[in-house]
Structure formats: C-alpha cells, structure tokens
Write a structure and sequence with these properties.
single chain, alpha/beta, Nucleotidyltransferase, domain 5, 2 domains
Length: 264
C-alpha cells in the first residue's frame, strides 16, 4: 500500500502539479511522486518487473491515484559511454556507443548533455521499453543513471548501488569528474575488488578516504558489513537528502531518485 505524505488521497487526486520520477533496472521500477511547488516527495513505490511492463505500470497505485504534469525516467543499465563535448556530434551518437558495446540490438540510442561537466552521456534504451513508457506517458523524458550521479554529486568518492550487486562509482575532485563507471559483480568479493581497483587506478588508499554511499546498501546489509572488515566504518558514510526535501521517504536508498528532478 502506498502512503501519501503531507496530502490526503483526495488532495492527491485533485492536484495537477506533480512530477513523477522513475528509475528502471532489470528487476525493479522505483517511482517517486514529487510536488513540483516545493520539490518534496509525496509518495514512493517499488514495483517488481516480473510481469509485463505495461501491466506493471497500469497496476501502480501512484499512477492510478495521481495526475502527473511531467514524467522522467532514468535507466540503470551499462549501455552508456561518456563523450567530451568538444568532439560530440549528435549524428554520431550510435557510433560512440557501439564503439564500447558488444551489441545494441533492440536498443535505441539517446544522450544527455551534462549540466556540470563538458561531457555528453550517450546511452541505450530498450526499444520495447521506450515504446511502452512513451505510450503511457507521452511527455516522458529519458536519462541515464550516470548523468544524474555526475550532475548531482559534489567532490568525493561516491558509490551508488542500483541493485545489490550492481553499482556505480563516481569520483569528483575540484568539481571536475575524475572517474565514472558502472560495475556488475557476481559476489561481495568482487564488489570490494572493483572498488580497490578504481582506488588504485586513482592512486587512492581505500582505508584512508571517505566513501559516500547511496542506493541499495545500508549499515546492516551484506556489502556494507563485508566492506567494513577492510575499510574503517567511520570512513563509510551515506549520501543523505537535503533538509528541504526531508520526510519519511527521503533516505540514502533513494538518493538518485530524489536528485533526478534536478537533472532533467
């Protein structure tokens, strides 16, 4: 059951200034309904994608009970590549992505012009997924999880878990992007291996730097408990939501979902 915060269900049904933020990965769709007047979350919902995608969204309580003035969807996938603006050409978007992807069959290519960096993020969207969502939400815009992270994070070493074994590492120094990539691990040992590999590449000691965590990780989760055997717990911190957005549904687990509206 979806709970609406700061508004009754009747008020929600009669309100016409909502933004719907969607995060989509291979297993789940996360939905956040936001009051555009104050950028605060009103309701959040996570839906398993075991069933038909259209039926999944048709059965969403948030979608059934609200009218969305604007809608955005962020793809959490590994079909992306970062291109410097100095060489980017829109007509070559597919070529940039094909250069480092084994196959783009059944995918369409889109791109984000990043706000804080002189970089364009080219990414793939499954054609079937795009067709279904664009039919449900004619005004929907699409973006990639990398774009949201790079444009919303401040200086530091950041790790965001889109899923339990899928995560993004973003490193920003002096407001410049130092590193970004997405990793898929088969087990918890590999999560630490990839983390150590990135730190070594950047000449950083993971035992001495602060790691800012967000997404599907918490102080009692398997990944956190494993990492804390090798990294001092005081160096493992969580990216929280600004006070202006705080309510019961504003936690580090949905950090990127809350940040999405600022980046679309």
């Amino acid at each position: 059951m979806v709970v609406f915060y700061h508004m009754t269900e009747n008020e929600v049904k009669n309100y016409d200034n909502f933004h719907l933020s969607i995060e989509l990965n291979s297993e789940f769709a996360h939905l956040l309904l936001i009051d555009k007047s104050n950028k605060r979350g009103v309701a959040i919902e996570t839906i398993s994608l075991n069933n038909n995608l259209k039926n999944t969204f048709d059965n969403s309580e948030i979608i059934q009970k609200s009218s969305q003035a604007t809608v955005s969807c962020v793809l959490q996938n590994s079909k992306f590549t970062l291109v410097p603006n100095s060489i980017f050409q829109e007509s070559e978007s597919s070529s940039y992505l094909e250069f480092n992807q084994m196959s783009l069959d059944s995918f369409e290519v889109s791109y984000d012009k990043l706000i804080k960096q002189e970089i364009t993020n080219c990414f793939g969207i499954e054609t079937e997924t795009k067709n279904i969502l664009s039919e449900l939400f004619p005004n929907i815009t699409y973006s990639h999880i990398g774009s949201v992270l790079i444009d919303s994070l401040t200086d530091g070493f950041h790790v965001n878990f889109s899923q339990e074994k899928e995560f993004e590492i973003t490193v920003i120094e002096n407001k410049k992007l130092g590193f970004f990539n997405r990793f898929i691990a088969e087990n918890i040992d590999e999560t630490l291996y990839y983390l150590s590999l990135v730190a070594e590449k950047l000449n950083l000691d993971i035992q001495k730097i602060n790691l800012s965590l967000s997404g599907m990780i918490g102080p009692n989760d398997e990944n956190f408990l494993f990492w804390s055997q090798f990294i001092p717990k005081e160096n493992l911190n969580f990216n929280e939501i600004e006070t202006s957005q705080l309510n019961a549904i504003s936690t580090h687990r949905f950090f990127t979902l809350h940040k999405q509206i600022q980046c679309v």
